């Protein structure tokens, strides 16, 4: 969707008449039925006159076309400025220009990452050239008009119109960003005439209407090149081989999709139920590869941002193909998507679905499950009711069945049982269910899974982090200071009797679980759900204890510090929903390990109880 598509002459008129903000506001209201925030309006009114000055200096033909605020399909991202026209040789060109109001920046660790002042404080974000380049590559891989019509050439750059380049060692021009700068050059405050000259070379002949039309109305689906990339990553990779009921679940979805291609009508919802470590994501990635090869428009959804980033890096890391990232989406991305826009949507970790996304508009009678089902002819949900860990989590088998019935969708259910994590030990999962009160069976722990209870948190660090290269996790029994002070994370997870203190994981590092500098940070349920590591060390806080007199687990409300997840206190005589959320949290944390899990209990009685069960 493009908010503004006009000739360069009309754009300049709107700027000179001081109407551009008003026109864009009206267009957003008409096309998206939403209001424009004051900050977004200010951004337009600050940046677009700067581009008007550049276009005036470029002395462009009146029928060169300007496109503003192009919303990348099925994402929340928008291209700031795009100009289309022909060069003197008659070649059709379109130039993406990412506009920034930055005044200074610093180089940062990580591929294509910089630091700058955003939202009231210094934050890590992507380099402007990286951003402009990936927007270009997104269009080249998803807009059929661009990847099928080789006559349109797409270019990208960034214009930092308030940024005075440092004379000695400009951070944004550091050699670490060289590959992105080569693909999308960056222009600073006093580079406006150079930018004007470069634009003129590409669109001097004007005649941009046809190009703008192709970009605005091009059909959205992955290119053949992207399909081949994903297929090559998964095919022949031992990590993605399907076994037993994984294959059954996979074939169920494939069969329904193949049938639907012939029938061209109907709607299907497929529920794949499975506990931790049953290989749900392996099935999902194989399905995505198959659907892409079958020319389906498919996306992979994960409500958990950290899990989504790790899945992306698993694939992108092998291929160096940034475009693969754009096949993965959060669960809040489908509010405005038309009915049956997608062929297939695959939703992993569906138990984490919400009523609506953060800062998203609410639609009466819809939640995220409804929106996903509405948006796709086939929707696949991987679900485990025992992994709901917040009052905001609404995903359950019952809810998905109810929402499917409202939409008249046919529901199919497959169950996964085999264990591919925890050393393949179904015994460990059964024992954990018994330990946490999900089962009344008295299970004896046996098998190859390495489980231990340690006596100090320092021992947990030594055994898990130092010796085995694993990660520490903890229940949400400590407050979280999320804003670093002087670049240092606060040591929030404090166990005074042992003189122990470490920080929660860095909220600015979505890839915390695999980043080497984060080894001595502690992951919480919201940043680890869906992930797996060889070894995990779990700190069980005082939110979970054990009463030897009643022989039962105790959940302490006052020790649970996740305010956003905490349900209201129940009425007298009613069960407390927090009990299940805390149990679910620790079951999820204690099933992240492939080879082993060690635990430290802040509650001594709980430690003794677990010891007695080992």
TrEMBL record:
Q: Which InterPro entries match?
A: AAA+_ATPase, P-loop_NTPase, SLFN_3-like_DNA/RNA_helicase
Tree of life domain: Bacteria
> Boundaries of each AAA+ ATPase domain copy?
266-393
Protein name stated in the entry = DUF2075 domain-containing protein
UniProt organism field: Ectobacillus ponti
